[in-house]
Each structure stands twice: as structure tokens, then as C-alpha cells.
Design a protein that fits this description.
This protein is mainly alpha-helical and 119 residues long. The chain has a domain at 21-98: Winged helix-like DNA-binding domain superfamily/Winged helix DNA-binding domain (Arc Repressor Mutant, subunit A, Orthogonal Bundle), CATH 1.10.10.10. It has helices at residues 2-12, 22-34, 37-49, 65-78, 96-110; strands at residues 81-86, 89-94. A hairpin with a 2-residue loop joins strand 1 (81-86) and strand 2. It starts with a helix and ends in a 9-residue tail after the last helix. 11% of the residues are buried.
Length: 119
């Protein structure tokens, strides 16, 4: 009985994201990934450098290496950055195509019929 309670509770709290169209799911994933200032700072830093960084990005942020590594992994999982192993270092750079695609998806969402709303 105790186990069945948690199974039922898990089913009841399921987010049901698959009930929404794929564009909204994509935008939600992008927004979730970008929702932390450290991830925005990483993207900004890589964009400002305008090259792949093989050094320690953690030196640029007020966070531990482990925490920065976790944020880099989130950005990499979404495809906003690429990371290639170069000897003992990992070289990180922006994935221009995916960055532009994310920008376009977010921009098109905010252009949906909001221009005439005066509420």
C-alpha cells in the first residue's frame, strides 16, 4: 500500500509536457536552460571571446569548477555550446546554428499577436 501511494503520486505529478506542441516544448527547454544567470554569463563570455576557449571558464565566474562544469553540461545538452576534448583540456565554443535557432524560436513566440494588445 505504501509503495502504491508513491506510484500514484508520481503519476499525478507528471508534467505532461508531451501534451503541448513541439515548438512550445522547444521554447520551454530553451527557457529552462537559460534560466540561470551563470549559463547566460557563460554564453556571453564565449560570444565576447569570439573563439573556442580551452582554458578554465570557471576563472571567469564566481562559482566553483564543479558548478561551472554542471552549467556547461546543461548548455551542451541543449546544443547551445560544443565541447571537444583537446588533450587534457576541453575546448568550448558557441554552436552558432543552435544559438540562432533558439533566438528565432523565442523571438517568434513573442511576436505572436501581441503587437495589438493594449491591455
Amino acid at each position: 500500500m505504501f509503495a502504491s501511494y508513491f506510484i500514484n503520486a508520481k503519476i499525478m505529478t507528471y508534467a505532461k509536457t508531451d501534451a503541448f506542441d513541439s515548438d512550445l516544448q522547444d521554447i520551454a527547454r530553451i527557457a529552462k536552460t537559460l534560466s540561470h544567470p551563470a549559463r547566460l554569463a557563460i554564453i556571453k563570455y564565449l560570444a565576447e571571446c569570439n573563439k573556442c576557449i580551452s582554458g578554465d571558464i570557471a576563472n571567469e565566474l564566481p562559482l566553483s569548477r564543479t558548478t561551472v562544469s554542471q552549467h556547461l553540461q546543461e548548455l551542451k545538452n541543449l546544443g547551445l555550446i560544443d565541447g571537444e576534448i583537446d588533450g587534457v583540456k576541453i575546448c568550448y565554443c558557441l554552436n552558432q546554428k543552435n544559438i540562432l535557432n533558439a533566438r528565432d524560436k523565442i523571438q517568434s513566440f513573442f511576436n505572436l499577436g501581441f503587437s495589438g494588445c493594449n491591455c
